[in-house]
Design a protein that fits this description.
By secondary structure, this protein is an alpha+beta fold. About 45% of the residues lie in helices and about 15% in strands. The chain has five domains: about 240 residues, Hypothetical protein af1432, CATH 1.10.3210.10; about 130 residues, 2-Layer Sandwich (Beta Polymerase, domain 2), CATH 3.30.460; about 90 residues, Ubiquitin-like (UB roll), CATH 3.10.20; about 90 residues, no CATH class; about 80 residues, Alpha-Beta Plaits. Strands 1, 2, 3, 4, 5 and 6 form a six-stranded mixed β-sheet that branches. A five-stranded mixed β-sheet has the order 8-7-11-9-10, with helices on one face. It has a five-stranded mixed β-sheet with strand order 12-14-16-15-17, covered by helices on one side. It is globular, with a radius of gyration of 28 Å.
């Protein structure tokens, strides 16, 4: 079975299980071409959409149906004549996106905007027309997902589009819901594009869209996006994983046997519950395989048992029966009902062994928890609705909270669903805060990827002057430097020391969940961050603030790194004769040349120079923010070039490897680095997050050209899916 065929079989099975039924695009295309129908007759192309919507929202009356009909008519007429690369009428795309959202329980306003989401971008329809026909809310959602023009923004169009979309999501999470469904349908149909474009879209999906789907709790979209990206970027590993899944399907179903035993136990205990088998998707199986170190997986490893009940108390009743009638695996127990995940997720997780020692993982949740686990924020409905209009997907209204308007509406949603304003999660508020300070699209894009890579949070208790002042939420792995900027913003630069749990600690100390932190500040105006703070900072807010301060306050001349340090090329053969030639030369006779600390350029980076105090020339990378700042200030650049020499000790580079966590990964990576003839100065491994792990290595390169070969070799290590340079990327070692 080919990887593509295996993907289709697996996805079809999972889509049926979740209710995300695939639609026949050719049938929709024919229906769309037959015309929009009449006011009294629904267009054939949206009959199924209306049926799904009414099944999820029984209260949706004729007015909702008429709104969707008008949105379809406008979308079909405006896209008429346009086709996708597959040859299908373009209208099949917004229809497919809207059906995905309808299956997840999205309300009428979201579905209306979804039908229209490409009209302003790709047709002559204007936002004013949308506003006149469908109102301000629909217009806001359509505008939020409309891309910025490349003709106006060039290479910055994509990151600036995402910045615009995230800002819009800060006011209405339905913007990102539409974008996620849009990307899912586009990824489903990537096969008609060139392999290089498929890979580019898959990488952006992996780095940005999948983490956003995870943070918004939309697991039904996240899991399919993960599998499709896995198939594009790692086709061989994907095919092997699917072959394992297919082979397991041919064997007797262990989970079915345990599920039947569990049903009998719950019937005897008089607990009304549904017990189903929830197959693992391809990426989940692959992660488990890596976690087991390549050991063969058993029948119980290819899925989990899902128990659905009516009330929260029933979840704990089921847990009691599980742990009484089976042997519990205590290390696998987690209570995400009492302590929900940051993305709305609630469930009890446990693992049990039957009388023959066969182990099965079990998830226990209410039906409402299950809807939220699958659809995340989409299951919460309209964030602007008052409590009287809120309604769950099964038609039962949550308790009223009273009040009207936007603030009251958010409070109503929070009370109805038992959360602290789930439509305004803390991670999104922090992201929106630091993105305003990102000086350019490249910095924003890089910082966004780094921020989204942190998919677990910790709570730190802060104190000032001995009095508790509250709590802050930080990504796992954050340091005291990150905390200083999280608490004091730009004032974090005044931090001169910290107490962690009452003891003095270095600023680079990594904080743990529940730590108590007291920041010691210096009120002197001259207080400022040190360059090494960038080695400790992990949050974009801290890194951007530190980098900006250092760029605005360049180091004195004698603190710049001299580019003419005596050097002997350490190319595997020792030489004790230092070279007197400079690493870089400037087109300015007699001028001393220094490498800038802010961007630490190395050959063959594109560089330029600027004359500083004392007549020396500082060399910056062309893309360095300091280059743009000094150019904008009217400073004249000086042409500079590289010499074919290497400083003593070579060059230092910091590279990051992102991988699926598995045993011996650290050993395999360090072995590869050593095999490339590269020395390791330091290494750090972050705690695994959702089976993903990031390794950071500072290495000494014999020459700059060795970096590319090293990164290729590291990417070839099994489980590694990305290797990239840190920013600032490379620094020359001091002699």
């Amino acid at each position: 079975m080919s990887a593509d065929n295996a993907m289709d079989v697996q996805r079809a099975a999972e889509a049926r299980r979740r209710g995300l039924r695939r639609i026949d695009l050719r049938r929709l295309g024919r229906a769309a071409l037959l015309g929009p129908g009449t006011r009294d007759r629904l267009p054939g192309a949206i009959e199924h959409l209306i049926k799904v919507h009414r099944a999820r929202h029984p209260q949706a009356g004729p007015e909702a149906v008429e709104t969707l009909r008008r949105a379809y008519v406008l979308a079909e007429s405006s896209h008429r004549g346009q086709t996708r690369k597959s040859g299908e009428p373009y209208i099949t795309h917004p229809l497919a996106v809207t059906l995905i959202l309808a299956e997840l329980g999205a309300e009428t306003t979201t579905l209306t905007a979804s039908l229209l989401h490409d009209t302003v971008e790709d047709t002559d329809v204007t936002l004013d027309q949308v506003r006149e026909e469908f109102g301000a809310e629909v217009t806001y959602l359509v505008d939020g997902v409309t891309k910025l023009e490349k003709v106006d923004h060039g290479a910055a169009a994509e990151p600036e589009t995402f910045r615009k979309m995230l800002v819009a999501t800060g006011s209405d999470v339905r913007v990102m819901s539409i974008k996620l469904a849009d990307r899912l349908h586009n990824v489903r149909t990537l096969g008609v594009m060139r392999p290089d474009k498929q890979a580019r879209i898959a990488k952006v999906t992996r780095d940005v869209l999948i983490p956003l789907a995870e943070r918004l709790g939309v697991q039904a979209l996240k899991t399919e996006l993960e599998d499709r990206v896995f198939a594009i970027l790692h086709p061989a590993e994907y095919a092997r994983t699917q072959a394992m899944i297919a082979a397991n399907a041919e064997r007797p179903d262990l989970l079915a046997t345990i599920a039947e035993d569990l049903r009998k136990v719950l019937r005897e205990a008089d607990i009304a519950a549904e017990v189903a088998i929830r197959p693992r998707h391809a990426v989940s199986v692959h992660r488990l395989l890596l976690k087991r170190g390549g050991a063969q997986l058993g029948g119980g490893d290819f899925g989990r048992l899902l128990v659905l009940v009516g009330e929260d108390a029933d979840c704990y009743a089921v847990l009691g029966e599980l742990h009484t009638c089976f042997t519990p695996v205590i290390a696998e127990f987690k209570d995400f009902i009492a302590a929900p995940k940051f993305n709305l997720y609630q469930s009890l997780h446990t693992a049990i062994a039957d009388g023959r020692g066969r182990i099965a993982e079990v998830l226990v949740r209410t039906r409402q928890m299950h809807r939220v686990a699958e659809a995340g924020v989409i299951a919460l409905g309209d964030p602007h609705a008052t409590a009287e209009h809120l309604q769950a997907a099964d038609g039962t209204a949550p308790p009223a909270a009273g009040g009207a308007g936007r603030t009251a509406a958010r409070s109503a949603v929070a009370e109805a669903w038992g959360r602290v304003d789930p439509t305004q999660p803390g991670w999104l508020a922090r992201l929106l805060e630091w993105q305003r300070d990102a000086p350019d699209p490249d910095t924003f894009w890089s910082a966004l990827r780094d921020d989204l890579a942190q998919d677990r949070e910790i709570t730190v208790f802060t104190a000032e002057g001995g009095d508790a002042s509250g709590t802050i939420r930080l990504p796992a792995g954050a340091s005291c430097v990150d905390a200083a900027y999280a608490v004091h913003g730009e004032g974090g630069r005044r931090c001169i020391g910290v107490r962690v749990n009452g003891r003095l600690a270095p600023l680079g100390t990594r904080l743990r969940d529940g730590d108590s932190l007291q920041l010691l500040l210096d009120d002197a105006a001259a207080s400022h961050p040190a360059a090494e703070w960038l080695e400790h900072a992990t949050t974009p807010a801290a890194r951007i603030a530190i980098t900006r301060w250092l760029a605005e306050h360049p180091a004195p001349v004698d603190d710049d790194q001299p580019a003419a340090a005596p050097a002997a090329r350490p190319a595997r053969a020792a030489s004790s004769v230092p070279s007197a030639q400079p690493v870089a030369v400037a087109d300015l006779p007699g001028a001393a040349v220094r490498l800038a600390r802010c961007c630490t350029p190395v050959p063959p980076d594109a560089v330029t120079g600027f004359v500083i105090r004392g007549g020396a020339v500082t060399v910056h990378r062309v893309e360095c923010p300091s280059t743009a700042r000094m150019t904008a200030a009217g400073r004249t650049s000086v042409p500079v070039g590289w010499r074919d020499v290497t400083p003593a000790g070579g060059y230092r580079a910091t590279v990051l490897a992102e991988a699926l966590s598995r045993p011996r990964l650290l050993a395999d990576l360090t072995e590869v680095i050593a095999t490339e003839g590269v020395g390791i100065v330091s290494a750090a491994v972050e705690p695994p997050q959702e089976h993903r792990v990031r390794h950071t290595y500072t290495v000494e390169l014999p020459d700059p050209q060795a970096l590319a070969g090293l990164m290729r070799a590291m990417r070839a290590v099994p489980g590694v899916y990305d290797v990239y340079r840190a920013k600032p990327a490379v620094t020359a070692c001091r002699s």
